[in-house]
Amino acid sequence: MGIGFFGAVPLAPLVSPAMDITLLGTGSPLPSPDRAGAATLLRAGGATLLFDCGRGVVLRLTAAGVFPIGLSAVMLTHLHSDHIVDLGDMVTTHWVMSPGPTPLKVYGPPGTQEVVDGMTAMFALDRQYRLDHHADLTQAPIVEVIEVEPGDQFEIADVTVSVHRTDHRPVQPTVGYRVTHDGKVGAIAGDTVPCDELDEMCREADLYVQTVLRADLIGAIPNPRLQDILNYHSSVEQAAQTATRAGVKTLVLTHYIPALIPGDEETWRALAAAHFSGPIVLGDDLTTASA
Ligand SMILES: [Zn+2]
Ligand SMILES: [Zn+2]
Asked: What is the pLDDT along the chain (291 residues), one digit of tens a residue?
């Protein structure tokens, strides 16, 4: 397949808010036919950033008008399987669609290199098949891993990213990212309970994306494995309380545990609205919010 083929596919839509967020995957580890796994796209200025690589991420990314080769970077919040399971698809697809040697940057907490190394080993045979078959494919995938620590700050294209500690213990380390561009701020938290560092990351953010669970629903299920997850995720109400404490403008909820049943959006929204008076965005995969 020639590279021109890929050029024929639609590019990202020409939208012009300073910052644009798309919930690529609103699901959780519990399978849902309609919800991909954890993944959020943030576009601002010249940066196209993907946060986490859950189940089905490449499909949803394409539906949002972006190919893996269009990403500036992948940013991982933590290394739970539901946030990284399709990183291999992302890396492979990025590689086979690249016209020449093109690094894919993957930012993540310590341990990210180990995950990428394992994933690279898993695809060793595939890599060799493709290198042997395509004369114009001469280089293995290049994954540039940047392991980050809370307090780090760096630029990607014309956006500034800072890294913040979150609290998803016993899973450690876990981080969230605060992205600033043109006076607008997006705060992308992964799985976490409320904590001071999270409040700081979200301070006055225009958009705050939080993975959530329904404590009322999960708490009512007498299954010890489900009960275990209650104490390391923000409930819908806690996400709203964080948003209020931090002075957030718009709260964006994702990673619904259990899966949000279509038609039940207003129940979820009401639980958040009892604690947060600003706009609350939630819904199906590909729901968007902008600032
Ligand atoms: Zn997690
Ligand atoms: Zn998760």
From this structure: 444 445 455 555 555 789 999 999 999 999 999 999 999 999 999 999 999 999 999 999 999 999 999 999 999 999 999 999 999 999 999 999 999 999 999 999 999 999 999 999 999 999 999 999 999 999 999 999 999 999 999 999 999 999 999 999 999 999 999 999 999 999 999 999 999 999 999 999 999 999 999 999 998 899 998 888 888 999 999 999 999 999 999 999 999 999 999 899 999 999 999 999 999 999 999 999 999
Residue linked to tokens 């399709």: 86
d(C-alpha 41, C-alpha 201), whole Å: 18
Residues in the 5 Å CB sphere of ion ligand 2: 82, 191
Contact 23, 285 (CB under 8 A): yes
Rounded to an integer, what is the distance from CA 218 to the centroid of its chain?
A: 23
Contact 159, 45 (CB under 8 A): yes
Q: Which ligand is closest to the CA of 37, given by its number?
A: 2
- The dihedral through the CA atoms of 47, 41, 154, 147 has a sign that is negative
CA distances for 210 relative to 18, 111, 144, 158, angstroms: 20, 22, 27, 24
**Joined tokens for residue 79:** 């290394």
| Cα angle: 21, vertex 288, 93; to 5 degrees | 65
Place of tokens 């998803």: 168
Catalytic residue list contains 228: no
Looking at the CA of 172, name the nearest ligand: 1
CA of 46 to the centre of ligand 2 (A): 28
Q: Which residue has the tokens 């199906």?
A: 284
Alpha carbons within 13 angstroms on the beta-carbon side of residue 269 total: 13
pTM of the model: 0.94
Q: How far apart are CA 220 and CA 205, in angstroms?
A: 33
Per-domain residue ranges of the chain: 18-282
CATH for the stretch 18-282: 3.60.15.10
